[in-house]
Amino acid sequence: MKFYIKTDKNNIVRDVLTYSYEGFEEIEYDDHVLPRNILSGYYKWDAANNDFIVDEQLKKEIIRENGGYVQEEVDQLKQKNAELETSLLEMTVLAAEQEQRNIQNEQAIMELTTIIAGGNA
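RE: above sequence
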């Protein structure tokens, strides 16, 4: 199948199209499905063998960098989760305090109702 690829100076695949476009090289690729993660930044086009190859060293570097990014994201999410749990706990305390005030108000209303009813009797 024909694909059109754009590579950088190190022959790393940077973009792939199914139609001709200026600046893209036409290739014949035997499979109609491109390799998974073809645009991950570590695939090279091997014209001699008419195939995409993985630059393992580059792949390790990219995964390590992305792993650091992912860990950073996880740490941020953990922090946000801790903040949300604290807020939830504070809201639970406030709700309990409000419930206690509601009970006290209901008791006061009942006492006033009794006084008023007893005063009219």
